[in-house]
Specification:
- This protein is mainly α.
- The mean pLDDT is about 90.
- About 100% of the residues lie in helices and about 0% in strands.
Length: about 120
């Protein structure tokens, strides 16, 4: 081979190797950036999992509290209903006893008032 051709080909090979080395260096930088982003994502995913677990625990506690509150409300409702029934019974009994007595007393008062009015008329 001709020396000039060999020098040309060697130079061209050197330039191509330099370009390839440059491209590989850029790719290495890109991969390093991608690796860094993956590490950040892994950290964020772990952090998100921790947050989700915390939210899950809070939701579970909230659900348990809601069930407990519902049970307490049901218990209070039964207790209140029972007491209201007792009060209704007592008021009904009092009403049964007092209404006739009051009506009787009102009738007697009317009779006495009428008698007093007649006596006052006779005197005048």
């Amino acid at each position: 081979m001709d020396k000039e051709l060999k020098a040309y080909l060697d130079e061209r090979e050197t330039r191509m190797e330099a370009r390839m080395d440059e491209r590989f260096a850029r790719m290495d930088e890109r991969f390093a950036g991608v690796d860094e982003r993956f590490k950040q994502m892994e950290t964020e995913v772990r952090h998100t999992r921790v947050l989700v677990e915390g939210v899950h625990d809070n939701v579970r506690l909230l659900a348990e509290s809601a069930v407990s509150t519902g049970e307490r409300i049901d218990s209070l409702r039964k207790e209140t209903t029972g007491k209201l029934e007792q009060i209704e019974g007592a008021v009904g009994m009092i009403h049964k006893i007092l209404v006739p007595r009051v009506e009787n007393l009102e009738g007697r008062v009317k009779i006495l008032e009428a008698k007093a009015e007649r006596e006052n008329r006779d005197i005048l």
